Predict the structure.
Amino acid sequence: MCSLERRDRVFLLSITGDGQHRLNADTIASLRSSLAEIRSQVAAAPGGYSLVTAAEGRFFSNGFDLAWANEAGTPSGSRQRLSSLVALFKPVVADLLSLPMPTVAAVTGHAAAAGFMLAISHDYAVMRGDRGVLYMSELDIGLSFPDYFMSLMRAKIADPRTLRDVTLRAKKFSAAEAEARGIVDSVHGSAAETVEAALRLAKELAARNWDGGVYASIRMGAFPEACAAVGLAEHDDEEKRKTFVSKL
């Protein structure tokens, strides 16, 4: 489950507990509820804001709840349950790609599969250096990537060799290597230091006092394939022109 607190203009969304933070229906619903609450607060008091997402314990998120999926008892039942999680998680990515503020993932532990996708759905990612890896496990466990996973990875992992190693080698990236490869922006000594670094960055970004709607529109324009894959409609040129003219 998740908790949400606000520190002036910075929202801190935490995945709580000491477990693996597997993404099941309850966790996904809690994430979406927190993001909806952020939108509601921002709509009531417009201004410059930012978001930090972190997690307690050794894991940022170890991906979808495969144990729950396998409890179906048959291969077809397991696939159906996993497909339901894939569908439920897609709007979380859409929520983050359209959120009207800068977003920072504080990767405080292992981030695998859908947990990796949760991290790179943010604008920035900072990671602890003393523990944790980034890992797309699908190849190792015999699962294909959902289409929107591939679109998001193509959008956020620019180097083709790194994308190859993530997807076709199932490589586990340490924090230092993830920074060298451009997957995360900075590395910090511990979970607490990582969260503090994320909060500092988020505070700096919120202080720019950017228009949230404009920020979200520019982000969606920067990653059109990923946005289309999660069902975010592009603003048409006329609507963009009206918005631009209204600011003059």
